[in-house]
Amino acid sequence: MNLRGRNKVNPNFNMSSMTDIVFLLLIFFMLTSTLVSPNALKLLLPNSKAKTLEKQTISISINEDIHFYINENRIEENNLEKEIREIVIGVEDPAIILHADKSVDIEHVVKVMDIAYRNKYKIVLATKP
């Protein structure tokens, strides 16, 4: 008489379903962490070997004599924000490319970045290739 049961318990544990869940959680947290943005300036630092993919709306330049230029037109520092607002009227998702001479003090660069932050413009700091 054969009294052995037909259902045997497999002592091995299959980890494939556990790894699927871990990978799904990893993807979920990676996607949600990119949507959270801290209260900071929208500053994109491009690689100096690659071209910027951002669509350029305005080019702002600051030379070594602290003269501000918007698209090669000289602008007084006091009128900078007003001129930028006039140029980007009607432009969806405006972007600013900032060209600053390396001898320029950081306070002048931060002034332009602050204008972009207050008006919710994207800003890219141009680098020399």
Q: If you had to describe this structure to a student in words, what would you say it looks like?
A:
This protein is an alpha/beta fold and 129 residues long. It has a domain at 43-125: 2-Layer Sandwich (Nucleotidyltransferase, domain 5), CATH 3.30.420. 32% of the residues lie in helices and 18% in strands. The protein has a six-stranded mixed beta sheet with strand order 1-6-5-2-3-4, covered by helices on one side. The longest helix has 20 residues, at 16-35.
Write the layout of secondary structure elements.
Layout lengths: L15 H20 L7 E2 L13 E5 L5 E3 L2 E3 L4 H8 L7 E6 L5 H13 L3 E4 L4
Parallel strand pairs: 1-6, 2-5, 5-6
Antiparallel strand pairs: 2-3, 3-4
Notable characteristics:
alpha/beta, Nucleotidyltransferase, domain 5, six-stranded mixed beta sheet, 6 strands
| CATH architecture level-2 label of one domain | 2-Layer Sandwich
Number of strands: 6
Query: What is the count of helical runs?
Result: 3
For the record, the CATH class of one domain is: Alpha Beta
Strand content: 15-25%
* CATH fold category name of one domain: Nucleotidyltransferase, domain 5
Give the helices and strands as they follow along the chain: HEEEEHEHE
Adjacency order of strands in the biggest sheet: 1-6-5-2-3-4
Spatial extent as radius of gyration: 27 Å
> Which residues sit in consecutive blocks of at least 5 with pLDDT less than 50?
38-47
The residue fraction in helices comes out at 25-40%
Mean pLDDT, nearest integer? Answer: 78
Structural class: alpha/beta
Question: How many strands, which pairing sense, and closed or not: the largest β-sheet?
Answer: 6 strands, mixed
Q: What is the straight-line distance between the termini?
A: 86 Å
CA-based shape: rod-shaped
